[in-house]
Amino acid sequence: xxxxxxxxxxxTPGFARDVYVDGAYAYxxxxxxxxxxxxxxxxxxxxxxxxxxxxxxAEGIYVAGSYAYxxSWDAGLRMVDISDPSDPHEVGYYDTxxxARDVYVEGGYAYxxxxxxxxxVVxIADPSNPQEEGYCSLPGPAxxxxxxxxxxxxxxYSExxxxxxxTDPSAPYEAGYRDTxxxAxxxxxxxxCAYIADSSAGIRVIYVDLTGPVEVGHFVTPELALDVFVxxxxxxxxADGLWILDVSDPSNPSxxxxxxxxxxxxxxxxxxxxxxxxxxxxxxxxxxLTDPSDPHEVGYYDTxxxxxxxxxxGSYAYxxxxxxxxxxxxxSDPQDPEEAGSYDTxxxxTGVAxxGSYAYxxxxxxxxxxxxxxxxxxxxxxxxxxxxxxAYGVYVEGSYVYxxxxGAxxxVVxxxxxxxxxxxxxxDTxxxAFDVYVRGGYAYxxxxxxxxxxxxxxxxxxxxxxxxxxxxxxAYGVYVEGSYAYxxxxGAxxxVVxxxxxxxxxxxxxxDTxxxAFDVYVEGGYAYxxxxxxxxxxxxxxxxxxxxxxxxxxxxxxxxxxxxxGEYVYVAEGDYGLGIYQNMLLGVGEGLRGRGLRYYxxxxxxxxxxxxxxxxxxxxxxxEVRLGVYDVAGRRVRDLVKGRVKAGMHRLEWDRRDxxxxxxxxxxxxxxxxxxxxxxxxxxxxxxxxx
Length: 691
Fold this sequence. Notes:
Blueprint: E1 5-10, E2 18-22, E3 25-29, E4 35-39, E5 47-52, E6 60-64, E7 67-71, E8 77-81, E9 89-94, E10 102-106, E11 109-113, E12 119-123, E13 131-136, E14 144-148, E15 151-155, E16 161-165, E17 173-178, E18 186-190, E19 193-197, E20 203-207, E21 214-219, E22 227-231, E23 234-238, E24 242-246, E25 254-259, E26 267-271, E27 274-278, E28 284-288, E29 297-301, E30 309-313, E31 316-320, E32 326-330, E33 338-343, E34 351-355, E35 358-362, E36 368-372, E37 380-385, E38 393-397, E39 400-404, E40 410-414, E41 422-427, E42 435-439, E43 442-446, E44 452-456, E45 465-469, E46 477-481, E47 484-488, E48 494-498, E49 506-511, E50 519-523, E51 526-530, E52 536-540, E53 548-553, E54 561-565, E55 568-572, E56 578-582, E57 600-601, E58 613-619, E59 623-631, E60 636-645, E61 648-654, E62 667-675, E63 678-686
Antiparallel strand pairs: 1-28, 2-3, 3-4, 4-5, 6-7, 7-8, 8-9, 10-11, 11-12, 12-13, 14-15, 15-16, 16-17, 18-19, 19-20, 20-21, 22-23, 23-24, 24-25, 26-27, 27-28, 29-56, 30-31, 31-32, 32-33, 34-35, 35-36, 36-37, 38-39, 39-40, 40-41, 42-43, 43-44, 44-45, 46-47, 47-48, 48-49, 50-51, 51-52, 52-53, ...
């Protein structure tokens, strides 16, 4: 972050005021240019894909689900359907009494900073017919709003920060306030602090004790601070360019870098390792915030197509590269992978499996293709089998290939003669079969909206469905290990299904991921989940009833396939090709001895907390560890860990009690990890009296 640089831009036709990033798109409130939808899949070359004109100046924006909520000055709150990003269109509006400047969506309500109209609470259960639920008048014009829990924090221009209790949305009331020396234009809540973009007074950091917020620190930017976005210990400020502040100590924020922009930076949104900046007349700017001192990727190969799936055997990775067919990548040097050979299949390659010297490719409308890869430099097709629908996923077991064939369910193909594969049986599933895993005479098929289907393939000629387990979202990927099926379930993350009785599979645990779980690979007690635009998530499944995320690696592009081999994780990363990552966790006997592990203390969750607190930490080797809780005077009130600890990731729950078993009162506390020469501290705010 000390040297951020612009990597791409798109000059919108209006005056870019605000930006919100969701998935592959940046949604820009473009002043007189209305709403602009920018595809940022390639941050170096953002492209507009759609726009929606609005009746007045687009000032603020929030995206939730399939809708963009736009604060449109005198035209109030506008609801825009963005389910098709190329055709955004307004479906409803609510004309607020003031000047709608900003909006935040939470729990079925849109909270509008409405200038002279104060804070308006709008029920958006029916986006085509939004209705005002309640409002709270404020002493100044409301410019910015951020909602967390039952509190709305409003940047109230000349009147500073106002804290509004919205427990009852029909009757919000002011519960506290803190004046600021400048003009409060925007607010962002992170942890126990509110960060105020205070125009001429820069950034003000306010500790939000809800009934008596107090300023604890500030940083005066060289130009007017118009917007702020905080992630972990970094605050990004739009102030005639982008300013990056270290706020690990909120009482002493310090500059770590800045990037000039050609326009007037008015809005900022952090997206992975990029900052998207609404830069006034200069449109959308994409700024790279990568810290090169802590790289995780050790190599990549950008395939010519769209890398969808990957299978690793020996020193080669076989990539299903959609329109570019099968690519064979030499990974003997993971830091410098090179293509050894390729075969361009006639369809769209989305799945690959391997047996003997043959690669079996699920090739979309072109069915199953059998490729001889005995010579990696010159793979050749030797046979194929047409399918009734689109072949998505493939699994090889013995002399049979099992194909997940979209709307045609599971197809069983005899490949005892690879030159003449023949379909011998099928089982039509109710949904769209995306992937399949075969274990112990059963095929486990993920069927989109219809969850996990279990099919008895002991008689390959007539396989019947014997059981199923509905999942909460769309099931895309599956891996079976022991008595459990691990399902990548789209927006519902990883689902763990007990299949010890295949006729009655039951979900026993889950771990929600932030993105769209698309594929999963299980190795050594860990599930490696590729999560769309949220990268690779590593989940400890040693207790299937309580899977927990222990690590992750994020990037700015779509991830859709994963394979684990030895000390590396291989990820099919769409347009970015094959990514090769150091395996973060290697199971060796008891505990973990991962070369990728490091000393680390996670941020307490939740924070602020009213009850129990979860804490996560890691150590790369066995040794003495002390994890203590300290009050603001520096007194240790409790040791959570004291003694010898095995290497690995650890997660514990603290009951908020001190060493004598007494519940600690509300206030600021610190968690401190000491291991060898390593020291790290995290701040925690306790609210109420606990429970």
